[in-house]
Amino acid sequence: MGREVKYYIVAADALPEIFVKVAEAKRMIQTGEVNTVGAATRMAGISRSAFYKYKDSVQPFNDLKSEHIITFYGMLKDAPGVLSRVLSGFAGADANILTINQSIPTNGCAAVTVSAETSDMEMTLEAFLEQISGVEGVVRFEVLAG
Fold first, then answer.
1. CA quadruple 123, 126, 127, 129: dihedral positive or negative?
2. What is the DSSP string of 56-124?
3. 11 versus 36: which is more confidently predicted?
4. pLDDT of residue 120
5. What value does the mean pLDDT take over residues 30-44?
6. Using 50, 70 and 90 to split pLDDT, how confident is the model at 65?
7. Boundaries of domain holding 71
């Protein structure tokens, strides 16, 4: 009988340093900054054995956006142009919108869900969420599923 795998999202500053360094080594390899595991581990300041021990268990949160469809949830003020500005943010970030669903506004706000294919986005998911949350008229904006 196989062991059930559970996943947690943990702030980087709460993790042992080795996990953060393994994630950094993986990033260097994936981006082509280095060509070998040996070079990545040297630059990250870890051993190759530590890298191989943890490489399949450590995944930065922003990598969850790669080649995935993510559904975002937002609460928007019922004012002209708010939804348009949010959608412009998606276009500016190279997110391909697949679906948009907006409820009828009540109490001056409307819930909206946007599903988007995000593999072409160059910014991190965290930066994207921060950008859209800062759009005038956005009350709340978060990842619903992805």
1. positive
2. TT---GGGGGTT-EEEEEEEEESSTTHHHHHHHHHHHTT-EEEEEEEPPPBTTEEEEEEEEE-TT--S-
3. 36
4. 85
5. 92
6. very low
7. 65-145
* pTM score, whole prediction: 0.55
Residue type, 92: G
Domain boundary among 28, 44, 59: 59
Q: Are residues 84 and 110 in the same domain?
A: yes
- Residue 97: give its domain's CATH number: 3.30.70.260
Our count of domains for the chain comes to 2
Average pLDDT value for residue range 66-87: 89
Q: Are strands 69-77 and 96-102 parallel, antiparallel or unpaired?
A: unpaired
Asked if residue 5 is part of any domain, the answer here is: no
In a domain, 85, yes or no: yes
Structure tokens at 116: 């988007």
Are 76 and 141 members of one domain?
yes
Lateral strand order in the sheet of 96-102: 96-102, 109-117, 69-77, 138-145
Instruction: Give whole-number Cα distances, 71 to 8, 28, 117, in Å.
Output: 19, 28, 9
